[in-house]
Model the fold of this input.
Amino acid sequence: MTSINNLKDIVDNGLCIGCGLCQSIAGKKNIEVSMTPKGRLEPKEINKISPEVFNKILNICPGTIVEGLPKEEIASNSENNLVWGYYLSLFYSWSTDKKIRFESSTGGLLNGLSLYLLESKKVQFIMHTDANPEKPMRSVTKFSYNNEELLGNESRSRYGPASPLDRFHETLDLNQAFAFVGKPCDISAIRQLAKIDSRVNKLCKYLLTLVCGGFAEFTKSQDFIESFKVKEDELSIFRYRGYGNPGRMYIKTKDGREHDREYNSFWGEESTWRVPFRCKICPDAIGESADVAALDTWRGGSPKGEDEGFNAAIVRTKKGIDLINSAAKAGFIHIGDKLKIEDIDDFQPHQVNKKKAVYARHLGMAKNNVPTINTKRLRIKELYKLNSEDFNKKEELGVSKRLKKI
Ligand SMILES: Cc1cc2nc3c(=O)[nH]c(=O)nc-3n(C[C@H](O)[C@H](O)[C@H](O)COP(=O)(O)OP(=O)(O)OC[C@H]3O[C@@H](n4cnc5c(N)ncnc54)[C@H](O)[C@@H]3O)c2cc1C
Ligand code: SF4
Ligand code: SF4
Done:
């Protein structure tokens, strides 16, 4: 199999997700993440990086390595499900603040927990993703120190490309306690970095994530605004969802024109998603190494209409349970009915299918001489062995076809 010898190999083999951690490690003068004509955020080496720096990236990058929950975080009373991994508890949950619940992606569980962490002073700031105030169709990494910074803009599902880790070393250099909210691949990269940088576990107190079906390349958002004859520099608001659950895709221009479309028009038909290749081979899109993973709870996997916003929470660590209980006690979040793993399967059929398919997809890559992701403790080979031969063959073949489009 071709090996990965430089940063370009990660990108050219479709393994990069644009998280920005390599830029944070090497410094922006050496590696810069920027938007490509295909609508992806990808890093480029501006100045040659040393073999030491490249090795560091190779051992952390979520395009090359993804592992399950660190062994020391696995509680002795955890359940371990073959698809969903370790968990201590599953239940409905949402923010008790009606405004947060309404304006957030689902029920504002992640924003509600973030606000609790700030107001209880368990952390000094939240590192999360928001819209770029100047270019609202693009996302930026944000450090929020208070309610207004956290919730005053677009901290809700950003379904386009984002680089939530592009400032991670700057965050560590602040030497302040913080919580990180991001996608499962971002969390995985932070867990890897923690192995070589002791500041990570000292300062990054909580890792909160969303169950993630992948994001859409930037061209999909461009097509959305162009369908209303709006140009990017005319936008004042670009929102994928929220203000209801799921809420509508919504844009507003600086001169006050408003357009919207229902959520399903963007995410309805899977073949139109324009999700990057790395998402299709994602061995952990369910936040296995986070403290808490939040998800949508539509039966069958997609919304049939609007509702008040009901998250499910998969609580994976003791730290996650303590956080949830204290945030509920302080009145920031509501803990609803308990759920079973079969409910989570029903809410997320696309995740169940992907987890079962991923190992065959990796095999398909290897057979085409394409390097794949090094994984540990994610059970993907065990799941592969339980699949029918037909299913596995179809997935292997499917990935071979997709490789041509990277
Ligand atoms: C790319 C993507 C894919 C998704 N796929 C699924 C899925 O398969 N199944 C499912 O149930 N739900 C999916 N969601 C929706 C998400 O799971 C819900 O937002 C979740 O239920 C949390 O809801 P909430 O109301 O608690 O979030 P909120 O309280 O609105 O908080 C959302 C948090 O996520 C952060 N965030 C938003 N976008 C990004 C991003 N691109 N990168 C890093 N951080 C970000 C925000 O900064 C904020 O902190 C996806 C969201 C995204 C962004
Ligand atoms: S660290 Fe992130 S941005 Fe850099 S190559 Fe890996 S996935 Fe891409
Ligand atoms: S599907 Fe996986 S790789 Fe893609 S954004 Fe989600 S967690 Fe990251």
Notes: The longest strand covers residues 89-95. The radius of gyration is 20 Å.
